[in-house]
Predict the structure of Tol-pal system-associated acyl-CoA thioesterase.
Amino acid sequence: MNEKDLATPYQGAFVGKTHHFALRVYFEDTDTAGIVYYANYLRFMERARSDMLRCVGIDQRAAMDSGEGVYAVAEAHIKYRSPAKLDDDLRILSQVREVRAASCVIHQRVMRGDELLAEANVTAAFLSPEGRPKRQPRAWTQTFERLRGEE
């Protein structure tokens, strides 16, 4: 492995219509008992969603910089099932479930091996620079429609 490879951040990938994103639980993610703080699951899911968009060619930064718009979480329903702990290797599995004109719903699962630790349905709304709901770019909704599915 060369130095350039070591400077390249990890990127997840799709297996079928499910995006897989792996991460490790670090000390900063936990409380003094070594258990992941509940709000950090939302951070893990955010990283996975951002990576999923990047993997399908959606450049959120360019859309934001050009004034096109930006995604923001409008709603999140999360169910915690079992705690993640310090040094656990986790996978965040993300699937597009619904595509609407100005938003999409993404189902996400936090897994430790085959064990489901938490799952959520997250509604991401596309907003104008003024913070108002706005139609997503057509190419993006077409991409989401191709990815839409359920296991």
